[in-house]
Write a structure and sequence with these properties.
By secondary structure, the chain is α/β, with parallel strands linked by helices. It contains 16 helices and 13 strands. It folds into two domains: 179 residues, Rossmann fold (3-Layer(aba) Sandwich); 180 residues, Rossmann fold. Helix 2 links the parallel strand 1 and strand 2.
Length: 411
C-alpha cells in the first residue's frame, strides 16, 4: 500500500515532471536557434519557429470544425500550422497550399509540445487550458477557443475556458453566460466574437446542393449517446420493440464510443434485433445520408440533436437524462440551461410513462406547425450569421494578428 499515489498527487507530480522536461527542451531549442542564427551571420530567421497561426485539435473528429476555417485562411494566403493528436486525422492529408499539418503525438506527448511552443495565435476546441496538463506557453501571444457544437458554452468541466483570451461563439445567450462567469470569478473580459457555426454552414451548403431525400416511407432515426444516462442503458431493447410496432422504417445509429465502451450491450442488441427491411443499423463515418433520409430523430444528450434540427429543419424526440451539472461551469450560474428551454420548442420529451404512445408523439411532432415555428426561433438564437462562419472567423483571427504584431501590440 505504501506505493499508492492518489490521483491528485499523481497529476501534480506529472505536471512538475512535464514542466522540468519541457523547460529543458525549450532551453535547448532556443540555444540551438541562437547558435544557427550566429553561424549563419544573421541570415537564418527564427520565424520558422514562430508561426503566425496554429490550430490544435485533440481528436480527428474536430477536423470538420477547422476545415472551413483552414480553407478560408488559405484563400487569403495565410499560413496555418495544424497540429493534431490523431495519427489518422483527415487534416494530415489535406493539400491546401498554406496549410502545414503535423501529428504531434497523443495526450501527454502532445501537451508537452504545446506547453513550450511558439506562435502568435493558437486556435483550439480543447478545453482545460492552464487547468490540466495543457499550460499556456510563454511563447504564445493569444489563445482562441471555438466550440465543437451548437448550444451550451457552460457545459465544459469547471474552468475549462477561463484562460483563453477569446472565444468564437454563435449566440447572444452564450455571451451572457460567459460574462456572468467572468464576473463571478473576477476574470478579465475575453474577446467574445459571434461568428456563427462554420461546420454547420458546410452541412447546410451540402444539403442545398444535394437537395431533399427522394420519396421514402416515414423514417425514424434513433441516435443515442453512450453512458449510464443514454437511451440504450435506460430503456434497453424496449425502445426498439416500441419503434418496430409503429410500422415506420427505423435507422439505429449508436454513438461510435458505444462500440468500444459498451460493446457487449450493443452486440446483444444487434443480435436480438437484426437488420431487416424495416430496421437498419448505421455505422457510416459520414452521417449526412441517414440524417437526410430521416423524418424525425430520437436521441438523448447527443450533439446530433441540434445538427439535425437546425440544418434539416426537422423535429426531435429527446429524453431527460437528469444531467448533473455539479462538475460543470453551468453549476455556477444557478439558472436553467438554455437547452432546457430550447428542446420543448423543437420536439417532445420521451419518458417511461409515454413510451407506449411513441407513434402518436412521432406523428404530432412531424405534423404540428408549432414545432416548425420553434425550430426557426431556436435557430435564430443559437446560429447567428448563417453561411458566414468561416469568413468571420478568418476576419477576426487576421485582425487580431495584426493588432498583436503591430508596434503597439508587441511585448
Amino acid at each position: 500500500m505504501f506505493l499508492y499515489i492518489d490521483p491528485g498527487t499523481g497529476s501534480m507530480l506529472f505536471t512538475i515532471l512535464i514542466g522540468v522536461i519541457g523547460a529543458s527542451i525549450y532551453s535547448l531549442r532556443m540555444l540551438w536557434i541562437k547558435l544557427r542564427f550566429k553561424l549563419s551571420g544573421g541570415k537564418v530567421q527564427a520565424e520558422t519557429e514562430n508561426p503566425s497561426f496554429v490550430i490544435f485539435t485533440d481528436d480527428k473528429r474536430y477536423w470538420k470544425i477547422f476545415e472551413p476555417v483552414c480553407r478560408e485562411m488559405d484563400k487569403r494566403g495565410r499560413d496555418v500550422v495544424y497540429m493534431t493528436a490523431s495519427e489518422d486525422d483527415p487534416g494530415l492529408s489535406c493539400e491546401l497550399p498554406h496549410l502545414k499539418a503535423e501529428y504531434v503525438g497523443n495526450e501527454n506527448k502532445a501537451f508537452a509540445r504545446l506547453n513550450f511552443m511558439n506562435a502568435t495565435i493558437v486556435l483550439s476546441t480543447t478545453p482545460g487550458l492552464d487547468v490540466y496538463q495543457w499550460k499556456r506557453s510563454k511563447g504564445v501571444k493569444f489563445y482562441v477557443h471555438i466550440p465543437h457544437a451548437a448550444s451550451e458554452i457552460t457545459l465544459y468541466r469547471m474552468f475549462g475556458i477561463d484562460y483563453y483570451d477569446a472565444i468564437l461563439l454563435s449566440g447572444e445567450y452564450q455571451v451572457q453566460d460567459i460574462r456572468k462567469l467572468e464576473k463571478l470569478r473576477s476574470l478579465p473580459a475575453k474577446d467574445l466574437v459571434k461568428i456563427g457555426i462554420p461546420y454547420m454552414d458546410e452541412m447546410a451548403a451540402r444539403l442545398e446542393k444535394e437537395g431533399p431525400a427522394p420519396e421514402h416511407p416515414r423514417t425514424v432515426l434513433l441516435a443515442p449517446s453512450w453512458g449510464q444516462s443514454a437511451i440504450f442503458s435506460v430503456y434497453g431493447g424496449k425502445i426498439l420493440d416500441t419503434l418496430l410496432k409503429t410500422g415506420y422504417h427505423i435507422i439505429v445509429r449508436p454513438h461510435p464510443q458505444s462500440f468500444k465502451s459498451e460493446k457487449d450491450m450493443i452486440d446483444k442488441l444487434m443480435a436480438e434485433y437484426p437488420e431487416s427491411e424495416q430496421l437498419e443499423w448505421n455505422r457510416d463515418t459520414d452521417n449526412f445520408d441517414c440524417l437526410r433520409r430521416s423524418d424525425i430523430l430520437i436521441s438523448d444528450f447527443s450533439g446530433v440533436i441540434f445538427d439535425f434540427t437546425l440544418i434539416y429543419d426537422k423535429p426531435v424526440i429527446y429524453t431527460n437524462p437528469n444531467f448533473d451539472v455539479s462538475l460543470y461551469d453551468a453549476w455556477w450560474l444557478e439558472a436553467p440551461l438554455w437547452t432546457q428551454g430550447a428542446l420543448p420548442r423543437i420536439g417532445h420529451e420521451l419518458s417511461e410513462e409515454n413510451m407506449e404512445n411513441l407513434k402518436d408523439i412521432i406523428d404530432t411532432c412531424i405534423s404540428d406547425p408549432k414545432y416548425a415555428e420553434g425550430i426557426r426561433a431556436v435557430k435564430a438564437e443559437t446560429w447567428e450569421h448563417p453561411g458566414e462562419g468561416a469568413k468571420r472567423a478568418a476576419d477576426y483571427l487576421i485582425k487580431k494578428y495584426d493588432e498583436l504584431t503591430s508596434e503597439g501590440g508587441k511585448k
